[in-house]
Design brief:
The structure is a single chain. This protein is of the alpha+beta class. The protein has one domain (3-236): Dihydrodipicolinate Reductase, domain 2. 41% of the residues lie in helices and 18% in strands. It is built from ten helices and six strands. The chain has helices at 3-15, 24-27, 32-41, 55-66, 71-80, 89-92, 95-107, 132-137, 143-151, 220-236; strands at residues 46-52, 118-119, 157-166, 175-184, 196-203, 211-216. Helix 4 runs antiparallel to helix 5. The model has no long low-confidence stretch (mean pLDDT 92).
Length: 237
């Protein structure tokens, strides 16, 4: 959705005293959008938002980082458990995390477009355009590259696919980025388990101590509960 259309839609909704709710679009069942919206509306200066926004990629790298298994095997397991999209490239491309960052940026009244986001695509160029079945049959081609990335980390580090909204968030646009990073295993991000999402919200008031929102970031059950919660709120109003 282009920013001009987004602002027009918001204006029409306000004019007709209507709303649409989309909490599960970013954090499955986590109260992320509501929290950021409340902080922003209350005048709190949010300085940075970063975290693991994809429950599917959380599952993949949480397991791959500490288990002696090929990357392709972990991806297939995540697919079979229903954590990834039917085509895992939708997750591995980083586009899903990028869209989530864009939603959060616009909650902060930033005029970013999707094309502004720096995204590290984890899929090799020659596998980006093939059909899904071909990609899945060639999934093992990713193993060597990801094993090399894993082996080159500092001792006691793990891999996380991180999304971040940073820069001067009081300006028209922020700096949005999505990338695979290595973090200390003892850090907040490094201690994640399963398919959890974890988001750190840094504000002027909190300083170096962020507000942390963590919980299940993937799965039909938690997402359904989040959608049902939005339906109940709309019905109540």
């Amino acid at each position: 959705m282009e920013f001009d259309f987004y602002t027009e839609l918001r204006s029409v909704l306000k004019q007709h005293q209507k709303q649409y709710l989309y909490e599960t679009n970013v954090g499955a069942g986590l109260p992320l959008i509501d929290t950021i919206k409340l902080l922003h509306l209350s005048g709190e200066n949010i300085t940075k938002i970063r975290g693991v926004f994809s429950g599917s990629l959380s599952y993949i790298f949480n397991h791959f980082s500490i288990e002696d298994r090929p990357f392709s095997e972990v991806v297939r397991e995540a697919l079979e458990k229903g954590y990834t999209e039917p085509d895992p490239r939708e997750d591995l491309s980083g586009n899903d995390v990028g869209r989530k960052l864009l939603i959060l940026a616009r909650e902060l009244d930033l005029a970013n477009e999707f094309s502004d986001i720096s995204i590290e695509n984890l899929i090799p160029l020659d596998l980006q355009q093939v059909d899904k079945q071909t990609f899945l049959s060639r999934l093992t081609e990713l193993d060597q590259a990801f094993q090399s990335i894993k082996d080159q980390q500092k001792p006691g580090h793990v891999l996380r696919y991180l999304g971040q909204v940073a820069g001067d968030l009081q300006q028209t646009k922020g700096e949005l980025s999505v990338s695979l990073v290595s973090v200390p295993q003892e850090s907040t991000l490094g201690q994640m388990k399963g398919s959890d999402s974890l988001i750190e919200i840094f504000t002027e008031s909190y300083g170096d101590q962020p507000l942390v929102i963590q919980g299940a970031g993937a799965g039909a059950a938690v997402t359904a509960r989040g959608v049902f919660g939005d339906i109940l709120r709309i019905a109540d109003r």
